[in-house]
Amino acid sequence: MMSWAVLLAGLAVFTVAGLGGCGTVEGFGKDVQKGGEAIERAAERRKPD
Q: What pLDDT shows up at residue 4?
């Protein structure tokens, strides 16, 4: 089950990306990449030792 922290982090990233109005496909790709990186960091923090 996906934790709430990871879900909220992903939602926040996509919200900011949408509000930021990336003007190109390249800009959108960068925003999606940063969103994925944020989700990975959140998942790593929640990973059991």
A: 76
Max CA separation in the chain (angstroms): 41
pLDDT classification of 44: cutoffs 50, 70, 90: confident
The pair of structure tokens assigned to 10 is 């992903």
Q: What's phi and psi for 24, nearest 5 deg?
A: -135, 165
Q: What is the DSSP string of 1-49?
A: ---HHHHHHHHHHHHHHHHHT--SHHHHHHHHHHHHHHHHHHHHHHS--
3-class secondary-structure state, position 2? coil
Q: List the chain domain ranges.
A: 4-14+21-46
